[in-house]
C-alpha cells in the first residue's frame, strides 16, 4: 500500500487571532500522530527545533500571600508549612542572578508572592531589574497585578518580560481563584503591553479542568491582539495543605496535546515546558519538546518547589542533541556560547562517570 498520509497543507506563515473554540477542540481531537506532525511542522517553520531557551526562577518574596489561588503553596490561607520571608535584599538577588548566568541561564525571572506591589516596594524591584540587566541577562518579573504607572516604572527600569498567567479558562477560573477576576488579569496584561514590555502568559493544567477548559485557556491566549512572546504551560505541582493537594493526575498525553495545540495556535511564541518537570520522566519531557515546547525553567528550584537538577537537564539536552538558545541581542554572545558549550561538556563528562560507575 502506498497511500500518502500527509495532512492537507496548512498556511504555516499565517499568525491568527480569531480561533474559534470548535477549531481548537478539533485540534485536541486529532489522532496523536497527526497533532504532533502539525505541531512540529509549525515549530520548524519558525524555530530551530534543537534549541531550547533556559530561564532561572528566583523567589524574591516568599509566602504569606493574601490571595486564595487553590494551587498555590504561598497563599496565607493554606497551611503548607512554608516559612514566610521578607523581600530579598537587592544585592542578594543580583548574586543569585550571577550564579544563574554562570550555570548557563540567559533569563532571570523574579517572582513575588504579592497580590500587587506596594508603592514602597517599587524602588527595590526596579533596582533589581537594573542590577540583573547589568550582568547581561534578560529580565522577567511576576509580582501580581500592576496598574499603568507600575508597569511603566518597570519598563523604564529596563524589564524585558512580565509574567502574569490567566491560569485556566474563563469558565473554570471561579473554581480556582475568588480574590481577583479574569478581567483584572486581562487589565494587568494590557497595562504591561501598553508600557512596551514583552508578555509571558500561560496557565496550569491538571487542576481538575476539562479538555474544553484547556481549549478555552489557549483560545484566550491565541486571540489576544498580540500573542504573548512566552507561553508557560505548567503541570500542577500538588502541594500538601492546598485545596488541590489530592487532585487526580492528568494523563501525560493530555499534557502533551496542550503543548502541541499551544504551538499550533501561537507559532512565533516560545512555549515553555514549565512547572511539573520534576514529576515527569525524560520521555515525557522529550515528547513535550517534540510537540513544540522550546523553553524551560532551569535550576534546582522553581519558586518554592523542586525542579530537576541543572546537570540532569544538561544530560537530557545532550541525549536529545538540544542546545540552550543564546540570548540574541547580547553583546558577549561569544562568551555566552562558550558558557553553554562548557555546561554541555560538563554534563557529558558526568554522565560518562555515572555510566562507568554502573
Ligand atoms: N503572585 C504573583 C501572581 O500570582 O500573579 C506571581 C507569582 S505566582 C506563584 C506565578 C504563577 O505560578 C501562578 O500564576 C501560577 O500559574 C504558577 N503556580 C503557582 N503555584 C503553582 C503550582 N503549585 N503548580 C503549578 N504552577 C503554579
Ligand atoms: C509560571 O508560569 N510558572 C512559574 C513562573 N511562571 C513564575 C512558577 C511555578 C511555580 C510552581 C510552584 C512553586 O515552586 O512554588
Ligand atoms: Fe499569591 Fe501568586 Fe500564589 Fe496566587 S499564585 S496565592 S497571587 S503567590
Q: Given the C-alpha coordinates, what overall shape results?
A: globular
Q: What is the helix/strand order? A: HHEHEHEHEHEEHEHEHEHEH
**Helix content range:** 25-40%
Strand content: 5-15%
Under CATH, the homologous superfamily reads Aldolase class I
Name of the top-level CATH class: Alpha Beta
| Multimerization status | single chain
Structural class: alpha/beta
CATH topology: TIM Barrel
* Major sheet details: 10 strands, parallel
Strand tally, please?
Answer: 10
Attached small molecules: S-adenosylmethionine, 6-(5-methyl-2-OXO-imidazolidin-4-yl)-hexanoic acid, iron/sulfur cluster
**N- to C-terminal distance:** 46 Å
CATH architecture: Alpha-Beta Barrel
Global Rg: 20 Å
Summarize the structure in words.
Helix content is 40%, strand content 13%. By secondary structure, the chain is of the alpha/beta class. It has a single domain, classed as Aldolase class I (TIM Barrel, Alpha-Beta Barrel). Strands 1, 2, 3, 4, 5, 6, 7, 8, 9 and 10 form a 10-stranded parallel beta sheet that branches. Helix 4 runs parallel beside helix 5, helix 5 packs across helix 6 and helix 10 packs across helix 11. The longest helix has 25 residues. It is globular and about 60 Å long. Bound molecules: S-adenosylmethionine (SAM), 6-(5-methyl-2-OXO-imidazolidin-4-yl)-hexanoic acid and iron/sulfur cluster (SF4).
Amino acid at each position: 500500500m502506498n497511500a500518502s498520509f500527509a495532512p492537507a497543507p496548512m498556511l504555516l506563515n499565517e499568525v491568527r487571532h480569531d480561533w474559534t473554540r470548535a477549531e481548537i477542540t478539533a485540534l485536541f481531537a486529532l489522532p496523536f500522530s497527526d497533532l504532533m506532525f502539525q505541531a512540529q511542522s509549525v515549530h520548524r517553520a519558525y524555530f530551530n527545533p534543537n534549541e531550547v531557551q533556559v530561564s532561572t526562577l528566583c523567589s524574591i518574596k516568599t509566602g504569606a500571600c493574601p490571595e486564595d489561588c487553590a494551587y498555590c503553596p504561598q497563599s496565607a490561607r493554606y497551611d503548607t508549612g512554608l516559612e514566610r520571608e521578607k523581600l530579598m535584599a537587592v544585592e542578594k538577588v543580583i548574586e543569585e542572578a550571577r550564579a544563574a548566568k554562570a550555570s548557563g541561564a540567559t533569563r532571570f525571572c523574579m517572582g513575588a508572592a504579592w497580590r500587587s506591589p506596594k508603592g514602597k516596594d517599587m524602588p527595590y524591584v526596579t533596582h533589581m531589574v537594573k542590577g540583573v540587566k547589568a550582568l547581561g541577562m534578560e529580565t522577567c518579573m511576576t509580582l501580581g497585578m500592576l496598574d499603568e504607572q507600575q508597569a511603566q516604572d518597570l519598563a523604564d527600569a529596563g524589564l524585558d518580560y512580565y509574567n502574569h498567567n490567566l491560569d485556566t479558562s474563563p469558565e473554570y477560573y471561579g473554581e480556582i481563584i475568588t480574590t481577583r477576576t479574569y478581567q483584572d488579569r486581562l487589565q494587568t496584561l494590557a497595562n504591561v503591553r501598553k508600557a512596551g514590555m514583552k508578555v509571558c502568559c500561560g496557565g496550569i493544567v491538571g487542576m481538575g479542568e476539562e479538555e474544553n477548559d484547556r481549549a478555552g485557556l489557549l483560545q484566550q491566549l491565541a486571540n489576544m491582539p498580540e500573542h504573548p512572546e512566552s507561553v508557560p504551560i505548567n503541570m500542577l505541582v500538588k502541594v500538601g495543605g492546598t485545596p488541590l493537594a489530592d487532585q487526580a493526575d492528568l494523563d501525560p498525553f493530555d499534557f502533551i496535546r496542550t503543548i502541541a495545540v499551544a504551538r499550533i495556535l501561537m507559532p512565533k511564541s516560545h512555549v515553555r515546558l514549565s512547572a511539573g518537570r520534576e514529576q515527569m520522566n525524560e520521555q515525557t519531557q522529550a515528547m513535550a519538546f517534540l510537540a513544540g515546547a522550546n523553553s524551560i525553567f532551569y535550576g534546582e528550584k522553581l519558586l518554592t518547589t523542586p525542579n530537576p537538577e541543572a546537570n540532569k537537564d544538561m544530560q537530557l539536552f545532550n541525549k536529545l542533541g538540544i542546545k540552550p538558545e543564546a540570548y540574541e541581542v547580547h553583546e558577549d554572545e561569544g562568551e555566552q556560547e562558550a558558557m553553554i558549550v562548557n555546561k554541555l561538556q560538563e554534563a557529558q563528562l558526568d554522565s560518562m562517570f555515572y555510566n562507568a560507575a554502573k
